[in-house]
UniProtKB/TrEMBL annotation:
<keyword id="KW-0539">Nucleus</keyword>
<dbReference type="GO" id="GO:1990404">
    <property type="term" value="F:NAD+-protein mono-ADP-ribosyltransferase activity"/>
</dbReference>
<protein>
    <submittedName>
        <fullName>Poly [ADP-ribose] polymerase 14-like protein</fullName>
    </submittedName>
</protein>
<keyword id="KW-0808">Transferase</keyword>
<feature type="domain" description="PARP catalytic">
    <location>
        <begin position="473"/>
        <end position="579"/>
    </location>
</feature>
<dbReference type="InterPro" id="IPR037197">
    <property type="entry name" value="WWE_dom_sf"/>
</dbReference>
<dbReference type="GO" id="GO:0003950">
    <property type="term" value="F:NAD+ poly-ADP-ribosyltransferase activity"/>
</dbReference>
<dbReference type="InterPro" id="IPR043472">
    <property type="entry name" value="Macro_dom-like"/>
</dbReference>
<dbReference type="GO" id="GO:0010629">
    <property type="term" value="P:negative regulation of gene expression"/>
</dbReference>
<dbReference type="GO" id="GO:0005737">
    <property type="term" value="C:cytoplasm"/>
</dbReference>
<dbReference type="GO" id="GO:0003714">
    <property type="term" value="F:transcription corepressor activity"/>
</dbReference>
<keyword id="KW-0520">NAD</keyword>
<dbReference type="GO" id="GO:0005634">
    <property type="term" value="C:nucleus"/>
</dbReference>
<dbReference type="InterPro" id="IPR052056">
    <property type="entry name" value="Mono-ARTD/PARP"/>
</dbReference>
<comment type="similarity">
    <text>Belongs to the ARTD/PARP family.</text>
</comment>
<dbReference type="GO" id="GO:0070212">
    <property type="term" value="P:protein poly-ADP-ribosylation"/>
</dbReference>
<keyword id="KW-0328">Glycosyltransferase</keyword>
Length: 579
């Protein structure tokens, strides 16, 4: 109650006149009154009588995220730090029609939390803006109160910025080639320097910095020490190294017992949250995983002060109702959970941990997630996105076995496009083009079956192949109708396939090549693939021992070979198929 003595005086209409009131909370809460004896005695009696007439009650709200729900502005700063935000704009909340909080009280709430945040180590958040609308009825009062509350915290009487011993103050890097500059004061104390080094590393981890340069803090001569010499560099180096060694790497957020205050109630936070390591097992055991998650049950305890028992009880009920109204429960089936990839499961576990959610298993082996609505909805969105992704991947896999889209690459070699691009091309969802596996952006003209590189302007061909249920068309073939089992394709003399066959042929026979045809016979291709697989399995590492051979024969024999293959019973009998 001591730190809220000004609010208590306002409640009772007690006038302090010429008496100075100075509340202290440690070592024990008390209020010091200084002034003329008679006025001090009068105020003491009035204050004592009024406090004795007040009704008080301890109100406790339990549940996952209860502590964070009542933190308000403090939670805003935590989220800014977690997301490495560099700035945030916070209006003065409360003076409007809905809450009708006096301007001074609303500003005090805001500036109190800002000062409390700045008093501790900060990460990337270096700018806090308080926007005030000029046409607001109390804008001038608001501005002056904000200015008065914050000016004393940020600078000393000479206007110089204050950096307390053992604390870190961050600023923008300006023209310096770094992300952030941290200002510290080691007070020529090795223990303080060690703590600072540890906190610097922690903040860098939190801000996802990849490197940090820590100078020899407090070594050398300092004007601020009136010409006194600094610490020995070896002592400073040892302190810094010890601090860095003690810093967690990688950083694991942990919560100890916290103590805080509300602007309208006096209370404390007590958290039973424990940090446990959790990693995905090879075979996902949802029950064991749920059991291994951190305990996020927390409680917020308030000391509610009012004029009557009824008012105090109503306030306690309202506190609990406010928390309950913002809580929800969502159930997830094993099938929904099994949709998650290891990365998505890691994201889910991080959300459960950072958003203070509670996870339980019911009798149906389902995950029951409880907590504040925003947190539970984030988990719900993650599982829905995973289900949509899995459904999309199944559709892509099915289509990939039925239809194959190819792009003509360098040196005239056809290449299959990835499954997701294959799906987009088939569905004609290519108004934005696509990016290939090498990061090249392409625009698509399906009417002419062409793709154009956005970088170089290169135009290349596209091809669509339809596979049979038991046969995948080779990538270099042309498309065939479902009723076709045999097709002869004359190769373009400018194609890479034509050049490859021509060069191989020239190694055997030095004759002029007039044309080259590709024989697409599905039945013979099936026999070839079966035989090749059989030889590969039999010969193990040696493989099928496949060779490319050329055979000369008559036109009539060619037709027979193309349709029914070589007659193996005639093997070794030269001349049956010509020379």
């Amino acid at each position: 109650m001591a730190e809220h003595i000004s609010e208590i005086l306002a409640m009772g209409g007690v006038k302090k006149r010429n008496v100075e009131i100075k509340p202290t909370c440690s070592p024990s809460p008390c209020v010091h009154l200084t002034g003329p004896r008679c006025e001090v005695e009068d105020l003491k009696d009035s204050l004592k009588a009024f406090i004795q007439s007040l009704k008080t009650k301890e109100c406790e709200v339990k549940g996952p995220g209860a502590q964070q729900f009542f933190q308000g502005l403090r939670r805003v700063f935590q989220l800014c730090e977690q997301n490495s935000f560099g700035s945030v704009a916070l209006p003065v909340i409360g003076p409007g029609i809905v809450l009708s909080i006096p301007v001074k009280d609303a500003v005090n709430i805001l500036t109190h939390e800002i000062c409390k945040f700045l008093s501790g180590p900060t990460g990337q958040l270096h700018t806090i803006c308080i926007p005030i609308m000029p046409n607001y009825p109390n804008s001038e009062e608001m501005f002056q109160t904000v200015r008065g509350n914050l000016s004393a915290e940020m600078v000393d009487s000479t206007g110089q910025a204050q950096v307390a011993s053992g604390q870190i103050f961050t600023t923008l890097s300006g023209g310096f080639p770094c992300k952030t500059i941290m200002h510290v004061c080691g007070q020529r104390d090795p223990a303080v320097i060690k703590t600072l080094a540890k906190e610097i590393v922690v903040q860098c981890e939190r801000g996802r910095c990849r490197s940090v340069a820590i100078p020899a803090i407090c070594a050398g001569e300092f004007v601020g020490f009136a010409g006194q010499g600094g610490l020995d560099p070896s002592v400073v180096a040892k302190s810094i190294l010890e601090g860095v060694k003690e810093a967690p790497a990688p950083l694991v957020p942990t919560n100890a017992i916290r103590r805080g205050r509300s602007a309208t109630t006096s209370g404390h936070w007590a958290s039973t949250r424990m940090s446990r390591s959790h990693s995905l097992p090879g075979a996902l055991n949802l029950s064991a995983l749920a059991t291994s998650l951190p305990d996020t049950e927390s409680r917020a305890v308030f000391l509610v002060i009012g004029y009557s028992d009824a008012e105090v009880s109503d306030a306690c009920r309202e506190l609990k109702r406010a928390y309950d109204n913002q809580c929800t429960t969502q159930t997830f089936t094993p099938d929904e959970m099994n949709c998650l990839t290891p990365d998505e499961m890691d994201q889910l576990l991080f959300k459960v941990d950072s958003l203070h959610l509670k996870v339980e298993m019911n009798s149906s082996e389902e995950w029951v997630v409880k907590g504040l609505k925003d947190g539970v909805n984030e988990v719900l969105k993650l599982t829905k996105d995973a289900a949509l992704r899995q459904s999309r991947e199944k559709a892509q896999d099915l289509l990939y076995s039925q239809v194959t889209w190819c792009i003509l690459g360098l040196h005239g070699v056809w290449q299959k496009v990835p499954k997701d691009i294959n799906f987009k091309l088939e569905k004609k969802d290519v108004k934005d083009g696509f990016v290939d596996t090498k990061g090249v952006q392409w625009t698509v003209d399906l009417q002419n079956m062409e793709a154009t590189s956005c970088d170089s302007g290169q135009v290349t061909a596209l091809k669509r192949l339809e596979n049979l249920p038991d046969f995948a068309v080779p990538i270099y073939w042309d498309n065939m109708n479902k009723s076709e089992t045999f097709k002869v394709i004359e190769l373009d003399q400018s194609s890479g396939e034509y050049e490859t066959v021509k060069m191989d042929f020239k190694r055997t026979v030095t004759k002029t090549v007039l044309k080259i045809q590709r024989i697409q016979n599905i039945n013979l291709r099936r026999l070839y693939e079966v035989r090749k697989t059989e030889l590969e399995n039999r010969n193990d590492s040696m493989g099928a021992g496949e060779k490319i051979l050329y055979h000369g024969t008559s036109k009539e024999s060619c037709t027979s070979i193309m349709n029914t293959n070589f007659n193996r019973s005639l093997a070794g009998q030269n001349g049956n198929y010509g020379f």
